[in-house]
Amino acid sequence: MEEKETKEILSRIQSMERELSFLKERVLSLVSPQTPKQATPPVSKPVPVEYHQTEVPLNDGPNWFVQWIGENLFVKLGVLSLLLASIWFFYLAIEEYWINESVRIWIGLVSAIPALLYGYRVRNTRPYLSPSLLGLGIAVLFSAYYSGYLWYDLYSTETCFVGLLILSLTAVAIAHAEKSEVLFGFASLGAFLVPILLSTGQNSYPFLFTYLLLWNVLFFWVRKDTGWKVIPLLLLAANHLIFVGWADDNLVDAKPFFPIAFQMGVFVLFLLREFQTLETTKSKEPILTLVSIGFTLGLGFVQSFWAFSVFYPVAKPFLLTLLLILFYGLYERSLRRSKLSLEKKKIYDLIGLFGLPFIVSLVVIGTTGKLLAFSLISFAFLVTIASTYSKQLYMYWAAFPVWFFALFYIFAFTYRSQNEIPFLNGRFLVFATGSVYLVLSYLYSRKFSEFSKIFLYAAYPYWLLGTFVEIYLGFPEEKKLFLYTLSLILYGLVALSVGFGKKIQSLRYVGFGSLALVIIKFYLYDFWNLSLGYRILAGLFLGVTLIVTGTLYNHFKKETK
Fold it and tell me: Which positions, given as ranges, span the membrane (predicted)?
């Protein structure tokens, strides 16, 4: 393909040279003095060369997929095939004992040199092939050197560790120079395998976590000014998989500093790097960056929960809260340093929701019973206020399911405890607080979102529901029906009075609805089921209320039209 393109270019250059020569002679003939006796010999015009495009470039139209397979996938499969063939031949040579132990190692080391040299040579002309060949060479060197330690004991554990580490760092240096994500993947695989391959069964976790943390610092530096997307996810998974593999048997017997320092270090380094990538990226949909941030927070929270449960079980909610505060601190730092377009603001609004489920889990972890219900309602209120203040509509919407769960969680404690006074207990305090929070949420966010009316429409029913629960649990059966009616009358009258006095139309509707319920309930149910005394009282209160209501409507009739 390259030879054909070269021939076409040379042909075009020759044609342009002939045409340029013709134009030069033509200009000279026009400028020089003409003699009528001498006839100018005719100049033959060059025959234009016509090119007919018989092939469509592979990168045009649907053929881009063919190009990707031919230039990228086929190259990697070819390298893999060569690697497998080499491994099989090497295995056969070992089985037949064609070569001894030391020669086997040297063959492996020497065979990697051609792949490295050729991969480096074609780094500019064949960008798909070069990283794969370099990675193949590094992998062969790594495997051959490790085999000398594993199978033949040619050198000590410390010598093997230093050699493998030098190979990994060399691959990192080449990957950094070439900005090659594939090559860095080979280097990362080797670096994370070194402590696992050389493990002697001793619980030397200070060295393990120090080594891994230093490697993550190196990655933090190397990834600067790169657009790598997949490698961060792979490294994040490798960090946490190694931690889980170690902690499953050894966390209980370890000291807290190194495991917690490792988790916090990985957490901060990855968040800093991914937020920096988000600040500088020009992509409108940095999906993998968002996924990396989400997994960093999620895995960091889960692993920290595990570690804090073992080392500091009492202070666990407080320490996890500090972890989330750290996340939002880095989030705000990145938000201030980023030039916000509309698309980028939506992305940051979405990231702001990442910590919401973990905050809810903290509330659940830190409290129990009625205190938990109160904390959930307070948290939902704070999220609503914070989202309104920061103009983050996504967070505003995300608060609604928290509200729903928080408001009705109190029903898990709808039972009467000993020495409990109706309307003077923690359960009714939750209902009252929830109603007040709903009203305040409406007043604060009514100019921000039209969905704020939901808070207003839910406030009075929730208060009424709390009242009914107190009546149901705190009074004998013969008084309940009368108290239900009385509470509807009382609340309806108060709502009407305030609505007319403050000229609040919604409160008038609330009062009118309450009284309508009282009328329906009185004539369809109370009239037939209340005892005579309570029936008289209910009728008396209802009659007085209806007269007062009619008076109010008549007094403010101009405003009700």
Answer: 73-91, 103-121, 128-148, 154-175, 182-198, 204-222, 229-246, 258-275, 287-308, 314-331, 347-365, 371-389, 396-415, 421-443, 455-475, 481-500, 507-524, 536-556
Q: For the CA atoms of the chain, what is the radius of gyration?
A: 39
Residues 164 and 269 in one domain: no
Pair 207, 129 in one domain: no
Name the pTM for this structure. 0.61
Same structural domain, 221 and 188: no
Six token digits for residue 145: 């050197």
In whole angstroms, what is the distance from residue 314 CA to residue 452 CA? 39
Reduced to 3 states (helix: H, G, I; strand: E, B; else coil), residue 88 is helix
Domain end point (choices 330, 347, 366): 366
Determine which of 25-39, 157-171, 277-291, 483-497 has the lowest per-residue pLDDT on average: 25-39
Does 360 lie in the same domain as 214? Answer: yes
Spatial contact of 174 and 183, defined as CB atoms under 8 Å apart: yes
Which ranges of 228-286 would DSSP assign to H, the alpha helix? 230-250, 257-280
pLDDT(534) > 70: no
Helix, strand, coil percentages (3-state) for the chain, rounded to 5, are: 80, 0, 20
Q: Quote the pLDDT of residue 35.
A: 45
Phi, psi of 272 (to 5 degrees): -60, -45
Buried b (16+ CB within 10 A) or exposed e, 540-551: ebbeebeeebee
CB 128 within 8 A of CB 154: no
Both 351 and 234 in a single domain? yes
Q: Is residue 540 part of a domain?
A: no
Q: What is the rounded (10 degree) CA torsion for 543, 547, 549, 553?
A: 150
Position 341 scores a pLDDT of: 79
pLDDT tens, position by position, 418-433: 677 888 888 888 899 9
Torsion of CA 481, 487, 493, 497, to 10 degrees: -170
Kindly state whether residues 186 and 213 are assigned to the same domain.
no
Q: Are 58 and 70 in contact (CB under 8 A)?
A: yes
| Cα 21 to Cα 44: distance, rounded to the nearest angstrom | 12
pLDDT of amino acid 491: 77
Asked if 496 and 507 touch (Cβ cutoff 8 Å), the reply is: yes
If one counts the domains in the chain, the total is: 2
Residues in Cβ contact with 8 at an 8 Å cutoff, skipping those fewer than 6 apart: 51
- Quote the CA–CA distance of 105 and 167 in Å, as a whole number: 16
Q: Phi/psi at 340 (nearest 5 deg)?
A: -85, 115
Residue 383 near residue 395 (C-beta atoms within 8 A): yes
Domain range for 235 is 202-366
How far is the CA of 226 from the CAs of 42, 223, 407, 463, in angstroms? 63, 5, 47, 56
User: Which tens digit of pLDDT belongs to each residue from 94-125?
Assistant: 565 555 556 666 666 676 777 777 776 776 77
The answer to whether residue 159 sits within a structural domain is yes
Are both 210 and 358 inside the same structural domain? yes
Place of tokens 């505003």: 396
**Separation of alpha carbons 113 and 137, rounded Å:** 7
